[in-house]
Design a protein that fits this description.
globular, alpha/beta, 179 residues, four-stranded antiparallel β-sheet, single chain, Rossmann fold, 3 helices, six-stranded mixed β-sheet, binds inosinic acid
């Protein structure tokens, strides 16, 4: 893991290693496998940020499961805009399915608190949220997060799918904005 990474002039410091992330993704995958025994959950991965976590989480699941992708946008640069737009709609019929939304990070909680009720209207059998990261101190809305990877401080992070203005998603570890 490199010491520091500079993206668009901002310095980011090492925060979570590949091993820490892999271990946590495996633990969550095993929990999901137990909780959904005898079921066939549908992972709903939120693009772009969750694509790497969703791939690792799905591979850690030992039960039959499926995946589909949606895109929501509420973020520009370093601050949440609070606006939620569905850019790529849901192709799959989720009626009667056990849906597990896969998010990279819950920050203010605006995105999920608006999206989860929309999803409920499509009559899935159940909806659960798995988020790799949760900025607990930044939460402004009530969001029911069933599977949390790490609770983290309210600082901007990049890597492992998370970006800063389009860059940093390919970094295998997670880095945090330096003070
Ligand atoms: P929320 O609606 O404020 O909870 O924001 C959720 C979305 O904001 C996430 O899916 C990310 O795309 C983005 N986001 C929030 N915090 C960060 C961060 O620290 N790094 C990168 N993206 C973030």
């Amino acid at each position: 893991m490199k010491d520091n990474i500079v993206i668009h002039g901002l310095t980011f410091r090492p925060f979570l290693s590949r091993q820490q992330i892999a271990e946590r993704a495996n633990q969550l995958g095993q929990r999901i496998s137990r909780d959904y025994q005898g079921k066939r959950p549908l992972f709903l991965a939120v693009l772009n940020g969750a694509f790497i976590f969703a791939a690792d989480l799905m591979r850690a699941c030992e039960i039959d499961c499926a995946i589909t992708f949606i895109r929501l946008a509420s973020y520009e640069g370093l601050a949440s805009s609070g606006q939620v737009k569905t850019v790529i709609g849901l192709q799959e019929d989720i009626k009667g399915r056990d849906v597990i939304i896969v998010e990279d990070i819950v920050d203010t909680g605006q995105t999920m608190s608006q999206f989860m009720p929309q999803l409920e209207q499509m009559e899935p059998a159940s909806v659960a949220l798995a988020s790799l990261l949760v900025k607990t101190e930044a939460l402004e809305c009530e969001v029911d997060i069933k599977y949390t990877g790490f609770e983290i401080p309210n600082k901007f992070v990049i890597g492992y799918g998370l970006d800063y203005d389009g860059l940093g998603r390919n970094i295998p570890e997670i880095y945090q904005l330096a003070d």
